């Protein structure tokens, strides 16, 4: 697709041309078979830990949005996949150095050309977003969408770091729970239910 065609499809909300730029979900998930995956959230409480080496030791490290990493000791350094629901500036893109970008937001108008044309780009289906939104009763966070997506694969283990469901707020900003369109109680219950059913999922 040309750059002009991309912007036209985005403007007119033409999903099919945008989806054609993405790797297939089955192909994305096939690459996780048998692997350990770290999904690193942005809770402030993670900065008080020393999980960095453990995070970097996983086979695949997935981070979220601007992926703040205040210290190597708490957060590690690697980013194999970056799950996005916001535009990423050049400075953050260079700092994070992600190997693959996943656009998880239903808001296609925020998707930028650089991300959409990156190697291994993945566009999360709108139907999957709507299904999880219905189950949670609110807009899902990028983290919840990633948990839902990753557990569809044949990964060996999925470990969550920096997920306290906004109890300690976020390293990404100063907003409180009332300022964001998510239901963190619902998401906490969602994750607890998954952990009870699937022993591959653990939370640090």
SSE topology sketch:
Blueprint: H1 3-11, H2 15-19, H3 25-30, E1 36-40, H4 52-56, E2 60-64, H5 72-75, E3 81-84, H6 90-96, E4 100-103, H7 113-116, E5 122-123, H8 126-136, H9 142-150, E6 157-161, H10 184-197, E7 201-203
Parallel strand pairs: 1-2, 1-6, 2-3, 3-4, 4-5, 6-7
Task: Give a brief outline of the structure.
This protein has 204 residues and is α/β, with parallel strands linked by helices.
Are there runs of 5+ residues with pLDDT below 50, and where?
none
CA radius of gyration is 16 Å
The chain-level mean pLDDT equals 95
Strand-and-helix sequence, N→C?
HHHEHEHEHEHEHHEHE
Helix content: 25-40%
> How can the largest sheet be summarized?
7 strands, parallel
Distinct helical segment count: 10
Based on DSSP secondary structure assignment, what is the total number of beta strands?
7
Structural class: alpha/beta
N-to-C span? 42 Å
Q: State the shape.
A: globular
| Strand order within the widest beta sheet | 5-4-3-2-1-6-7
Name the beta content range.
5-15%
Can you characterise this structure?
The protein is built from ten helices and seven strands. The chain is an alpha/beta fold and 204 residues long. It has a seven-stranded parallel β-sheet, with helices on one face. The chain is globular, with a radius of gyration of 16 Å.
């Amino acid at each position: 697709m040309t750059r002009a065609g991309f912007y036209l499809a985005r403007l007119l909300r033409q999903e099919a041309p945008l989806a054609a730029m993405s790797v297939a979900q089955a192909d994305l998930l096939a690459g996780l078979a048998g692997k350990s995956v770290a999904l690193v959230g942005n809770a402030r409480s993670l900065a008080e830990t020393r999980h960095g080496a453990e995070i970097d030791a996983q086979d695949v490290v997935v981070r979220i949005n601007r992926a703040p990493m205040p210290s190597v000791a708490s957060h590690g350094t690697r980013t194999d996949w970056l799950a996005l629901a916001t535009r990423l500036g050049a400075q953050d893109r260079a700092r994070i150095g992600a190997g693959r970008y996943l656009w998880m937001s239903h808001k296609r108008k925020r998707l930028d050309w650089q991300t959409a044309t990156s190697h291994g780009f993945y566009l999360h289906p709108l139907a999957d977003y709507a299904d999880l939104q219905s189950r949670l009763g609110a807009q899902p966070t990028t983290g919840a969408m990633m948990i839902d997506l990753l557990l569809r694969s044949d990964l060996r283990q999925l470990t969550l770091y920096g997920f306290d469901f906004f109890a300690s707020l976020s390293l990404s900003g100063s907003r409180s729970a009332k300022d964001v369109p998510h239901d963190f109680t619902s998401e906490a219950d969602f994750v607890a239910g998954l952990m009870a059913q699937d022993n591959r999922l653990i939370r640090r």
